[in-house]
Amino acid sequence: MTSVGIIQCNRRFIYAVAIVALASGISGCTTTDKTTTGSITPANGTRDTLPAGNFDQMNQEQLMQASSSLGKRYEANPKDRSAALNFSTVLRMTGRSDQALAVMRSLAIAYPKDRQVLAAYGKALASTGAFDAALDALRRAQTPEYPDWKLLSTEGAILDQMGKTGEARDLYRQALIINPDEASILSNMGMSYVLSGELATAEQYMRRAVSAKGSDSRVRQNLALVVGLQGRFDEAENIAKQELSPQQAQTNVQYLRSMLSQQNSWNMLKDKKKPKS
Length: 277
Fold this sequence. Notes:
Layout: H1 3-9, H2 11-26, E1 40-43, H3 60-76, H4 81-93, H5 97-110, H6 115-127, H7 131-141, H8 149-161, H9 165-178, H10 183-195, H11 199-210, H12 217-229, H13 233-241, H14 246-273
């Protein structure tokens, strides 16, 4: 079975590959944020609508230091809006999604009509898999007369994970009308096609994203993921080496190759168990 066939048969598998591969380095993002289909964090793709804090450029050790500092500031004043928003972001990026949600739930109670708080609350909900509640929060943060492209893209990423691919892509297209050729939207669209097994189309969007405004390390490494999923491992490794150390790039591609091999073996085993017609 080809990698495309595997993906079409098992959406959960491909999302697991994206999340784990991205978190381990094939994307520079260390988060399993479910508000993006490729950064999965995340992969990817979308950047937070939150203020300040260049967290995307931090390694895991730096993120943990930032978490400790922001945690102390938050503890001193849980209603400190900026501290809570940034603390929640760092918590999600270090895999503590439940704690991030608790922080944002308290802040949403304190600022029930704050659009930025509602948007961050929606992202925190999505990170824990509470997709329906996340969509509700994001839609309350949105203003139909002046729609925010970042919220549209984030909402699309959530719908993609709910299997509502058509609705998701409609939102990405709306976001692109507002902000044409934005890398994060194109990357999310690309990952949407990965989830449906349309890897050639996914690669087209990822290559557009790489050359678009706002492109960063995560977007370029999402391209490496898409190329690797098509079995072009050497090419994927070369792309990843531009963003990672040679050892990290090799490790991620080996992991991806192993996951695809295991999934192929599992599908062949299931086929053998089926009674012959």
